Amino acid sequence: MSFNLNLHIMRTLLISIGFVFTLSLTSCATRVVTTPSKVTVVKRPAKYKIVKVRGNRYYVWNGRYHKKTRNGYVVVRI
């Protein structure tokens, strides 16, 4: 009887370890956040144009496209 009990405990332990190992391989993170490179936030000048590219609104002045942020406008590549 003690052999069967030890076998049952060992089997349960191995299944539990396998389950925990499987959970550790899957990640809840859906994206990796990296620190952005040097970004300069600027104020919008008086003369600018609003254009839409692929449904997104951009502000153009001095030949550069800018995206509106909470703190100001940043240069973006399109």
Overall form: rod-shaped
Q: Determine the mean pLDDT.
A: 82
Summing up helix and strand content along with how strands pair, one would put the structural category as: alpha+beta
As an assembly, this protein is single chain
Major beta sheet, strand line-up: 1-2-3-4
| Helical segment count | 1
Q: What proportion of the residues is helical, as a percent range?
A: 25-40%
The main pleated sheet reads as: 4 strands, antiparallel
What letter string, H or E per element, gives the SSE order?
A: HEEEE
| Whole-number tally of structural domains | 1
Tally the beta strands.
4
Radius of gyration: 28 Å
Low-confidence segments = none
Q: How large is the share of residues in beta strands? A: 25-35%
What is the straight-line distance between the termini? Answer: 73 Å
Overall description:
This protein is of the alpha+beta class. The protein has one domain (2-30, 39-76). 31% of the residues lie in helices and 26% in strands. It has 1 helix and 4 strands; from the N terminus they run αββββ. It has a 4-stranded antiparallel sheet with strand order 1-2-3-4, with no helix packed on it. The longest helix is centred in the first third of the chain and has 24 residues, at 2-25. It starts with a helix and ends with a strand.
Question: Can I get a quick summary?
Answer:
The chain has 78 residues and is of the alpha+beta class.
Fold topology:
Elements: H1 2-25, E1 49-53, E2 56-61, E3 64-68, E4 73-76
What attributes does this structure have?
single chain, about 80 residues, alpha+beta, 4-stranded antiparallel sheet, 4 strands, about 30% helix, about 25% strand, rod-shaped
